[in-house]
Amino acid sequence: MNNQKSVQINNNIFRRYDIRGVYGKDFNEDTFFQLGYAIAKQNERITVGSDNRRHSRQLAKYLIKGLSAKKAKVFYTDISSIGLCVFTGWQLKSNKIIFITASHLEPHWNGLKIHYGDGEPFKSKDIKNIKQAIKKLKNKQLIAPKQKQSIVKVNFSQKYINFFKKHFPLLKNNNLKIVVDCADGATSIIAPLVFKKLGFWVKKIHCNYKIFGKRRASEPTLEATTKLKKIVQQTKAHFGVAFDGDGDRAIIIDDQGRYLNGNEIGSLLAKFLINEHQQTQQKLIIVKTVAVSMALENNLKIQKNINIKEVPVGHNSVIPACKKYKAILGVEQSSHIVMPQYFIFDDALLVPLKIGEILIKEKKPLSMLINDLKTYPYKEITWYYDDNKKNQFVKTITSFAKKLFKKFKIIDGIKIYFPYGWFLIRQSNTSPNIKAYLEAINKSKLKLIEKKMMALIKKVRGRGLEPPRE
């Protein structure tokens, strides 16, 4: 298929949520041809889009050849945000929606996020099925179709904007000031345009889609958003928003320059979405991951008709649960936010639009609304750990922890509870990492919890397992 050197497919690219690895090392164009062939069924309607990594368009070309070998009708969005791509596939009633990206990972990574036609992400079993299908193709000679491929290039930007105008009428001529940081990623074109068309005063930073990965890390961390914080304060903006590389996550900087991640954003949105649904007599469901702050529950304790469902970390756990329970909100600590009243997928543009609507309704600064919420000291720690060994590490940690601690939960890794807080240790499903999350009622208790957690890790190291590497 491809004139480039042969690359052996690394089985670790088939992860729990999606498919991703290092381009040229773990996969190449031939892999994407095989993936297209394995993913498609005969004559399906499939929407394809990509982020703006230097190899994404080339990989899209080979993916589409593989899809076409199954006679799929392909609708191609070219470079777009993941939200716009999934919206397009949803509107077109596609059977599947595929977006080429490695999200927040470094520029030399790439991969696929695959969705059903309504925007729900593929389940873990679906990714495993693709992996098995690729294995079966190993000795099969695949030939690119000689007949003309059925590809339609589509641009649903205006329909996307009109959708938001319809659902956020209060934002018209709102005069809210917003600073938009797109990490020079996939949202660089569409996000500033949406905000301008909906009436925001917009200041752009890091919105050049031609230089992905050169100025700001595509993970919107506290450190990566220092410039955004500075400009929000300098311009006296109502708030700032920083997107990740593909645009399914966003963090917020409030008018005082404070960094708000999925924990704070989730609590804020939960409070106001509950108010919007007050007329209903039925229980309101909120879905959250096991790593989300305990502040979410504590901020909602006064509400009697709220039921919170806890799921493993990952948007492909949150979104199906939102569908199953007919939830009004889904929250992940890393800022995947789902608001099913609009659509089921986690398009990060919804977050700043909803916050803008809340500011107009409340007539208060964002910082004041955040001050009204309970928050607790919260910490996240990431260690590099070999993909082939991280599962065994977490299994061993879990075995030890069950003997040492009285109260625990095994949903995703192991979560240990104390009267004053908790910690969670789990393996990352998107990269070779071990993750830990800690939270307590105050800073001194957080230090105590961290000390207990590190003592547990030390015991596991004594069993001959490698320690996590920073």
Q: What report would you give on this structure?
A:
- A six-stranded mixed sheet has the order 1-5-4-2-3-6, with helices on both faces.
- The chain has helices spanning about 30-40, 55-70, 80-90, 125-135, 155-165, 190-195, 225-235, 260-275, 295-300, 315-325, 350-360, 365-370, 390-405, 445-460; strands at about 20, 45-50, 75-80, 95-100, 110-115, 150-155, 175-180, 200-205, 240-245, 250-255, 260, 285-290, 305-310, 330, 335-340, 380-385, 410, 415-420, 420-425, 435-440.
- Helix 1 crosses helix 2 (about 55-70), helix 5 crosses helix 6 and helix 13 crosses helix 14.
- Strand 9 and strand 10 form a beta hairpin.
- The protein contains 14 helices and 20 strands.
- The longest helix has 19 residues, at about 445-460.
- The two termini are about 40 Å apart.
- The chain has four domains: about 10-155, 3-Layer(aba) Sandwich (Alpha-D-Glucose-1,6-Bisphosphate, Chain A, domain 3), CATH 3.40.120; about 160-260, Alpha-D-Glucose-1,6-Bisphosphate, Chain A, domain 3 (3-Layer(aba) Sandwich), CATH 3.40.120; about 260-370, 3-Layer(aba) Sandwich (Alpha-D-Glucose-1,6-Bisphosphate, Chain A, domain 3), CATH 3.40.120.10; about 380-460, TATA-Binding Protein, CATH 3.30.310.
- The model has no long low-confidence stretch (mean pLDDT about 90).
- It is α/β, with parallel strands linked by helices.
- The relative contact order is 0.10.
